[in-house]
Amino acid sequence: MNDLPEQLRAATDDAPPSRIDLDSFIAREQRRTRLLRWSGASAGAAVLVAALLAVPALYAGGTGLTSGLGGAACPTPSPNPTEVPSDGATLPAAPSAQECAATVARLSAALRDVLAVTAPDRATGPFAGIAFVYQPRYAQYEADVHLSGPGGRGLLHVVVSELTEDPPSAVQVCPEGSVGRGCSYEVHATGAVVFVTDYADTRQVEAHRADGTRVMVAVGVPGVAGETRPPGAVPPLTMAQLVDIAEAPGLSLFPGRSPSARPTRDAAVEDLVGLFTLLLRQKFPDQEFASSPVQGSAETGYRTSVTVADEGSVSVEVTPACSGPTCPAPPPCPGPGDTSCTVRGDGSRVTVRDDATTRTVRVYTAATGTVTLRVTGPLVSRLTVDHLVTLAARLRP
Amino acid sequence: MAKDVEGFREYTAGRLEKWRRTAYLLSGDWFLADDMVSTALTGLYRHWDRVSRMENPDAYVRTSMLRAMLNERRRPWRRERVLDVLPERASTEPGADGVADRLAVVALLAELPARRRAVLVLRYFCDLSVEQTAAELGCSTGTVKSQTSRALEALRARLQGAELVAEEA
Fold this sequence. Notes:
The complex is a heterodimer of chains A (397) and B (169). Chain A has 397 residues and is of the alpha+beta class. Among the domains of chain A are: 93-246; 267-323 and 330-395, Protein Transport Mog1p, Chain A (3-Layer(aba) Sandwich). In chain A, 27% of the residues lie in helices and 25% in strands. In chain A, helix 2 (22-41) runs antiparallel to helix 3 (43-59). Chain A is elongated. In chain B, 66% of the residues lie in helices and 0% in strands. In chain B, helix 2 (16-27) packs parallel to helix 5 (57-72) and helix 8 (114-124) packs across helix 10 (141-158). Chain B has two domains: 1-75, no CATH class; 94-160, Winged helix-like DNA-binding domain superfamily/Winged helix DNA-binding domain (Arc Repressor Mutant, subunit A, Orthogonal Bundle). Chain B is mostly helical. The termini of chain B are far apart. The interface between A and B is large, with 61 and 69 residues.
């Protein structure tokens, strides 16, 4: 069976039952519409109605429908095994119904407060209707707010979750060439790592706070569907407004918690693994990667490796320069087993060792140290000596 | 003016399953597919008065789902995970009962970059023309053709020389 349309149809033959109940969905949307209408008529009455409607919803069970459906704010986790994230990420434990309800109420109030200060004229509906819901699949709280600005209407999406890993490094967030062109990365005095990305149709800010909370804020750009933003297309919020929201003190999962004692970040390690992966990603944009943890230290140097699916692996070892009488002599050129050794104009030596399944390129520079790249498997035929020398030059300490 | 809820219900009920299947091919995950359809349904309901007057409201739903999928890829620092070994991957060997075939095509699609996957799904599952696909993805027809060609080339390479019948033009 090699007919693609037929294969695609067959691939969806065993569809499991849908979690979407159209009748319930319509009923919820009608409830929401009525609530917004009443809220508009009387702000004071709306707060009461919202509270009355919200209380049972906070404790209701559910099947994990999205916030967009206006489902229960704290749905109970479903036993459905498909709720395990497909990428194998470890999720924090789900909060109890009481904890969840309290967090939803607190975060919703905080979001309303910060919007009232930073963007008082942008929401298309009353602030009373703004509320978070808990998404058990991703263990995060989410809220959507419809906004309007000079360029039209756009949806603000806010996600608050617990940090489960260290923030990404600057080079991972803003690949070379993107810094200053819609991408920025800053470590603030509060210890928060804040990074900003401006896509054609979305403007996004993510704050990884020292108290262990991650806040992601994104707003759509009205009228943009492609990869380029036409002149005149303006999102309803500025970057500064998004940063204000992402850093709003109330949008924390752990209010009052002291900043965690994070291990000292080694920028050299982060840059090495980030740059190494990015450079390989440019060469193999479609392949699946797995990287080993970086080992070593600033004194001894670092090493790591990346396995490229079905292709083999590339390891890198970066050794710092050594100065002093106890330093070892520069390696012989060529050394035993080397295929070639070239001394370049800048004084660096490029040594190549080649066999059928392994290629090793070592670039030695007295002033900066040594970078050694070793390729094994079918990748040998795809990563030429020139490729590896270029890669090594970029990774030079 | 009251919202035409019955019109919405009638229109949606007959198409929900097809949208789910499209979303599944785009995401490779039935749970995510339901999420994508839910998001699209919300937009459709809230803008039903306007969207129902469009020539093809289906396009609105598909565009919503595509945006949801394409936005996911915009977190490169989330895609790269430090692992000691590559995770097990779905087998692409054909099986007697056809189950392996079904899993294989979804696994192969998942290996494609998001836009190429979207192009294949729109053209060969949703039966859209090059022009319609370009309109829904917000790109040129030339881009659709080149993405289609590269996607099919990648699939053929992964199928290790097996014939893959698909009209490219």
